[in-house]
Amino acid sequence: MSLSLTVDGARWRTHLLDVAAALPGLVPVAKGNGYGFGLGRLARRAQWLHERAVAGDTGSAGTPLDPGVADTLAVGTYEELGEVASRFDGDLLVLTPWRPFGAALDVLEHERLGRRVIHTLGRLEDVEDLLTRRPDARVVLERSTTMLRHGFSARDLWEASAALRRHPAARLEGVALHLPLAQGDHFSQVNRLLTDVVGADLPGAADGHAGAHRVWVSHLTDSELGRLRHDWPDLTFRPRTGTRLWLGDRDALRVRAHVLDVHPLERGDVYGYRGRTAPRSGHLLVVSGGTAHGIGLEAPTGSLDLRGRAGTLARGGLDALGLVRSPFSIDGTQRLFAEPPHMQASMLFVPTGSRVPAVGDTVDVRVRFTTTSFDEVVIEG
Ligand SMILES: *Cc1c(COP(=O)(O)O)cnc(C)c1O
């Protein structure tokens, strides 16, 4: 009685190895709902990926994995560290910048975990504050991008670098750039930002200290990364990747919901929380999956302008009768919600003439993985 994610294990693992082969220095990202899989599962999988890389495995085209793949796992928040720390052995990069409150402070008290965590810094006051509290902290300095979410300006990056010199026990692990998703002209922006990175005179840069030459990036294409590696041979790029890694092969993933109940409906029959009347005869299907799982309303099927609407009415489209498209589909046809989704179940309308599944059957569901809570995740094979 569940909304379940079934994973074709062999296919998924092949995809993970292929992404790792394409992205030397890959840093898997496990945050939020764990991209639908759960944080713990992704942490174990990242550990596996790192072990495969160290063992010299290749992607399916024969490209060997760089041994640095997945030596670090990125999490979104300090609160997420607990779920991954016992399942992944390597370093843990926290993407949300450190602030002097909440779980970001608690982790400083942990002797062992504290040594594995890499903090992201984005404000000058936080550099002083963190290093006063934990002088040996490992830190990444974030340079702000056109995202304008977090990070230092070019000038403040230089100041942060100067502040780090006043704390010789601090361990600089690199500079972070979080780029927008939009494809296109990342390249010129990254080039400008890298000029700032080099101009910031990072501690250790002149002595070849690895952290002063490491740049953590996101959302660059393989060719952009290739060009950057070519143009900036002194820098090491670490691509932080979540969606493309975990969700990049949709054919390895299948989401299904159980049919929980089936009721025949005559035109005019009353049903649902809102006492709607059936627009025509058919069946009411109650399936698992509702708002608590993140199942939401989809955009109406028909055109919203008057002419389109008149056309839909003339064709007798059900959406014109006030029903809304659902993410559930039966035999490849997307079905309409009989009414908006409930907390854990949804009611679908199946018009007469279509095959009616039985209780216990499953139907396919199209979801946004990063906002869906599955009742179960099954890795097959
Ligand atoms: C979420 C996130 C990523 C990974 O994003 P995807 O689109 O899932 O690959 C990388 N960097 C930062 C800072 C993030 O917050």
TrEMBL record:
InterPro entries: Ala_racemase_N, PLP-binding_barrel
Protein name as annotated: Alanine racemase
Domain Alanine racemase N-terminal: 70-186
Lineage, highest ranks first: Bacteria, Bacillati, Actinomycetota, Actinomycetes, Propionibacteriales
One Pfam family this sequence matches: Ala_racemase_N
